[in-house]
Design brief:
There is one protein chain. The chain has 476 residues and is of the alpha/beta class. It is built from 17 helices and 18 strands. It folds into two domains: 2-244 and 457-475, Rossmann fold; 267-451, 3-Layer(aba) Sandwich (Rossmann fold). It has helices spanning 18-30, 69-75, 109-127, 141-148, 185-188, 196-203, 212-218, 228-233, 267-281, 306-315, 331-343, 356-365, 381-387, 398-403, 423-438, 440-451, 461-475; strands at residues 2-6, 35-41, 51-58, 78-84, 87-93, 131-135, 155-159, 167-169, 189-190, 193-195, 206-209, 238-240, 293-300, 322-329, 348-352, 368-371, 391-395, 416-418. The protein has a nine-stranded mixed beta sheet, with helices on both faces. Strands 15-14-13-16-17-18 form a six-stranded parallel beta sheet, sandwiched between helices. Helix 14 links the parallel strand 17 and strand 18 (416-418). Helix 9 (267-281) packs across helix 12 (356-365) and helix 10 (306-315) crosses helix 15 (423-438). The two termini are 15 Å apart. 49% of the residues are buried. The mean pLDDT is 97. The chain binds adenosine-5'-diphosphate and alpha-D-glucopyranose.
Length: 476
């Protein structure tokens, strides 16, 4: 099958969250059996230099004499081909993206991502793909174009997070009526605004999201961010597929970024060494490495439920855990964490900022990993935690509840689960973690078991193939 993915993030070039890792690991696994291409924007702030082949693909417009701002930009844009293993990458090289340091947080996203979506649609025509797979609102207009343009390709749209919809005041999106989009604004409307995500999920031949648990949640009004009705209309074409990870990329036995490599057999010494070294590195050499360490890494945003953690942290002062927290984002969350890491130095350390290397070191050093999300489409850190022998403590939502089980039998026990948005339930979970940590026989048995969990994509790429076949059949 000839597959083309369209995304705003792709590891290692552009990463703001899990979308980046998911795309890179899924496409890599798919490329073992299929002809897989990926398009992503070319920004100045790429984290790694791509291996360009020198080949470029211009954007040929059907009416070259016509002009408007979108057509002018497209005339000055092209795709630059690069290679990564068996994959072909097509970087969208355009004046709209060239000068950006970061992919999000810039003005005019409604315009930039619409033009990128058109370009991705155009690329699928040039490559003559069998299936076009778009991800999140940034590329959601591409399935709309696939449905409404002559020669459109079968399309699949994946929701990684329903909270971000690309909804813009109608007056900002008048350009969508004109060449080359020719899209009727009425069709794109939701609650008085142009909503890219909704338009994408109503147009794609198949929709997926990143866990069955999240799929179920999004069909309920309470969790659908206003789109559950639209999703219910598409429920026969809507599948939940749990994310996988790249076991070569996230593997403590070959991770050069951590202090000491280890595997399931050597986890005891390996993780202890990582913990002591990490305490040295963060300037806390006096913290007793025999105390349990709870790691927390994530975007500081409402979704992740960190305010619930802050409350239970204050309520459970008697617990002996030490916490290392890494995150960046909203000031309302950054400030109290920053404050605590000064006033409670013997209980918590906070690193404000983004660092791929520190994230690996925290995973390798921690005994537990806390994810108190209020909602979580899939979540990758609980899977990385399994790989690094770090027992996840997660709220019972979305993909977290699909991937972590607190069982009475050690062999099925893969973490600790508590009720979302409930500081007491989270506090009780931290108490259970303390009890487990003290029971060393059980603790090490669980740790070894979770390291043997297989979260690679091999088992799950077939589920995407089934969805692709359905999309193709629907179009035929
Ligand atoms: P989301 O995509 O909602 O942010 P995921 O759990 O799917 O959540 O993925 C988050 C990814 O981003 C993980 O790989 C995590 O380690 C990484 N990450 C988040 N914040 C940081 C940070 N401050 N520094 C390094 N990595 C981070
Ligand atoms: C989103 C979700 C996260 C998911 C990731 C990759 O950012 O918030 O739960 O793991 O996408 O699919």
């Amino acid at each position: 099958m000839k597959i083309l993915h369209a995304t705003a993030e792709y590891f290692p070039y552009i990463k703001m969250g899990g979308l980046s890792d998911m795309l890179a690991s899924l496409s890599k696994e798919q490329s073992q059996n299929h002809d897989v291409s990926v398009t992503l924007p070319l920004i100045r702030g790429l984290k790694e230099k791509p291996e360009f082949t020198g080949k470029t693909i211009p954007i040929k417009l059907s009416f070259p004499e016509k002009t408007n701002p979108v057509l002018e930009i497209l005339k000055d844009s092209c795709f630059r081909e690069a290679r990564k293993g068996r994959l072909k990458l097509y970087f969208f090289d355009s004046p709209l993206f060239r000068d950006l340091e970061t992919i999000y947080g810039n003005n005019d996203e409604h315009f930039r991502f619409a033009v990128y979506s058109y370009a991705a649609f155009h690329l699928s025509q040039v490559l003559d793909t069998d299936v076009f797979h778009a991800h999140d609102w940034h590329t959601a207009l591409a399935p709309v174009l696939q449905k409404h343009s002559p020669g459109g390709k079968p399309s699949v749209f994946t929701i990684h997070n329903l909270a971000y919809q690309g909804d813009h005041p109608l007056w900002m999106t008048g350009f969508l009526k004109e060449e080359p989009f020719l899209l009727h604004p009425e069709f794109l409307l939701h609650e008085g605004k142009t909503n890219y995500l909704k338009a994408g999920l109503l147009s794609a031949d198949q929709i997926t999201t990143v866990s069955p648990g999240y799929r179920k949640e999004t069909l309920l009004d309470a969790n659908g961010f206003g789109l559950s009705e639209a999703l219910r209309r598409r429920s026969d074409d809507y599948t939940g597929i749990i994310n996988g990870i790249d076991p070569e990329e996230w593997n403590p036995s070959n991770d050069i970024r951590i202090f000491e490599r280890f595997d399931a057999k050597t986890n005891k010494e390996g993780k202890l060494k990582n913990k002591t070294e990490l305490y040295m590195e963060i300037g806390r050499p006096l913290i007793d490495p025999n105390r349990s360490l709870v790691g927390i890494i994530g975007r500081l945003t409402y979704q992740k439920g960190y305010s619930v953690f802050l409350q239970s942290f204050q309520e459970r002062k008697h617990l002996s855990h030490y916490y290392i927290f890494q995150g960046a984002g909203e000031k309302d969350l950054e400030n109290p964490l920053f404050h605590l890491s000064h006033t409670e130095q013997d209980r918590i350390y906070f690193y404000k900022g983004y660092s791929e290397e520190l994230a690996r070191k925290i995973e390798a050093a921690s005994d537990f990993f806390l994810m108190p999300s209020l909602f979580e489409p899939c979540g990758l850190n609980q899977l990385y935690s399994h790989a690094y022998g770090t027992i996840p403590i997660v709220s019972r939502v979305g993909g977290l509840k699909d991937t972590v089980v607190e069982s009475s039998q050690n062999k099925y026990y893969t973490g600790i689960v508590f009720e979302p948005n409930d500081p007491s339930s989270l506090g009780y979970a931290l108490e259970r973690a303390e009890t487990l940590y003290k029971n060393k026989v059980k603790f090490y048995e669980v740790r070894e078991n979770i390291m043997r969990q297989d979260w690679g994509w091999k088992k799950r790429t077939g589920e995407y193939e089934t969805v692709y076949k359905k999309a193709i059949a629907k179009r035929a």
